[in-house]
Amino acid sequence: IERGLRSEILERTADRIRNVASRSSGRADEDVVMIVLREQTMRDQAIRESLELLSNRALLAGLLESAELEREQVEAERDELETRSKVCALTGLLNRDTFIAEVGHLLSAHLAGGPGFGIAYLDLDYFKVVNLDFGHHEGSRAIAHFGECLKAAAGESCIIGHPHGDEFLVAI
Q: Does the N-terminal or the C-terminal CB of the chain have fewer CB atoms within 10 Å?
């Protein structure tokens, strides 16, 4: 915009010089031609620079948008990995390490004068028979179903973990 204003000023100046030169004779016309050519060259250069600047800004805007999308994707993947590192993929219940950490918070609160709590250890007896008679796929379905039932029965106030296999933990 600034360069465009400069071009307008140059144009008006060139027009004034042309008017003066048309009144006089000889060399003044050549000078006017040189001024007009110089002004046209400067205008063309200003246009090229403006287009280059706009092109660079568009490129930077595209790169910024791409980087933002990539950052959002990385954050989403990180959140997913963090969640998957805390829960059992089969049951969706807390894994052993996360369960122990959560119970550690309960224990700290209890030792600081907070409410009491209890821990129940559940082991599904004879579960190997399910795997042997019906296959591991059905055994996995049974474990997942038991986890859903346990979660529904325990409610929100309990912390439920599935450390591995056919074992479950519940902090009440």
A: N
Three-state helix/strand/coil letters over 46-78:
HHHHHHHHHHHHHHHHHHHHHHHHHHHHHHHHH
Contacts of 67 (CB under 8 A, 6+ apart): none
Largest CA distance in the chain: 117
Q: How far apart are CA 132 and CA 129, in angstroms?
A: 5
C-alpha to C-alpha distance for 138 and 46, rounded to whole angstroms: 74
* Phi, then psi, of 117 in degrees rounded to 5: -155, 165
pLDDT per position as a tens digit, 96-115? 999 999 999 999 999 999 89
Cβ-count burial of 164 within 10 angstroms (0-12 exposed, 13-18 middle, 19+ buried)?
exposed
Who wins on pLDDT, 25 or 125?
A: 125
Contact indicator for 158, 172 with CB cutoff of 8 Å: yes
DSSP letters for 17-36: HHHHHHHS-THHHHHHHHHH
- Contact in structure between 122 and 168 (CB atoms under 8 Å): yes
Report pLDDT digits (tens) over 36-53.
778 788 888 888 888 788
